[in-house]
Amino acid sequence: MSELSQASCEVCRIGAPTVSDVEASELLKQIPNWSLINVDGVNQLQRKYKFKNFVKAMAFANQVGDIAEAEGHHPGMLVEWGKVTVTWWSHSIKGLHSNDFIMAAKTDELLSQ
């Protein structure tokens, strides 16, 4: 278990600071399978998970939904046959907050359960 996966999300309100490039670089070291992407000027974290079939992919997506609801922070998800793409970013600040890195780590932890 990583330090990030043990943390809890904090309330992220409009105007909260986004993580700096230096902070993002350091946090990414703790979630090495995630990529930093930029969509329409908004930095986001993204990872594609592979599964043996649609049922397993859907089950994983439901688990992600459960942790998202528990933390009050929700990702973008695309569920396909044998694949789930999860994208974390903070909508309210149009960028990355420490919450996104926490949730990425929590998402990874689902694979070890």
Describe the structure.
With 113 residues, this protein is of the alpha+beta class. The chain contains 4 helices and 4 strands; from the N terminus they run ααββαββα. It has a 4-stranded antiparallel β-sheet, with helices on one face. β3 and β4 form a beta hairpin. It is globular, with a radius of gyration of 13 Å.
The strands making up the biggest β-sheet line up spatially as 1-2-4-3
For the largest beta-sheet, the strand count, sense and barrel status come to: 4 strands, antiparallel
CATH superfamily of the domain at 42-113: Transcriptional coactivator/pterin dehydratase
User: N- to C-terminal separation?
Assistant: 11 Å
Low-confidence spans: pLDDT under 50, at least 5 residues?
Answer: none
CATH topology of the domain at 42-113: Gyrase A, domain 2
Structural class: alpha+beta
Helix content: 25-40%
Proportion of strand residues: 15-25%
Query: Which word captures the global form?
Result: globular
The CATH class of the domain at 42-113 turns out to be Alpha Beta
Number of strands: 4
CATH architecture type of the domain at 42-113: 2-Layer Sandwich
Oligomer: single chain
Instruction: Note the run of SSEs as H and E.
Output: HHEEHEEH
Mean pLDDT across all amino acids: 93
Rg for CA atoms: 13 Å
Please provide a brief summary of the model.
The protein is an alpha+beta fold and 113 residues long.
Keywords:
alpha+beta; Gyrase A, domain 2; 4-stranded antiparallel sheet; 37% helix
